[in-house]
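During the reporting period, our protein records have gained a structure token line. A sample record is set out beneath this paragraph:
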Amino acid sequence: MSLLFEDLSTVGGYVTAIDINGQGKSAFLKPDERLIISGKYVVQNPKDHPTRTVQLILFLGQGFLKCIYNDVPPVEPDVEEGTFSFRCHVPEMAGRYLIRAGWAYNWPWPEDAYKYLLAYPRSIETVGEVTAGVFIERPISGMSLLPYLMLVPGVIFLGLGARKK
């Protein structure tokens, strides 16, 4: 199993796969466009703390995005594997936004776990990214692929292909 977060020898919670709008782990979208984020995760507790509640949190940029797991997982070496899927929106400001995942133990609310992870980011890893920008598309006679230019402050992307709308 290929993990995006860490290897299975360490307890906690890890995102093992992520898909953003059918574009894989990196998506190029317009500001405020709808996102569908889905993926897989794995969680486990250490033998010496079998009853800990694990929160697995997703961030978009520096903001809280979603708590995808908030429960007591099995004790190592057993693991619980699960899936997640939810809708949200790209931020309104053009730019590059990292999707990061982090885990924490025993917080009463997922938002508290998020605040803890911001202060002590030891268990946070980047699992995907969203680039929000303005698309300029212009058909070229005789071409089956649609060239497009994506403008993001400080970055320009030029691509050929049928961009999903």
Q: What stands out?
A: The longest helix spans residues 110-119. The first strand starts at residue 12 and ends at 20. The CA atoms of residues 38 and 85 lie 4 Å apart. The two ends are 32 Å apart (CA to CA).
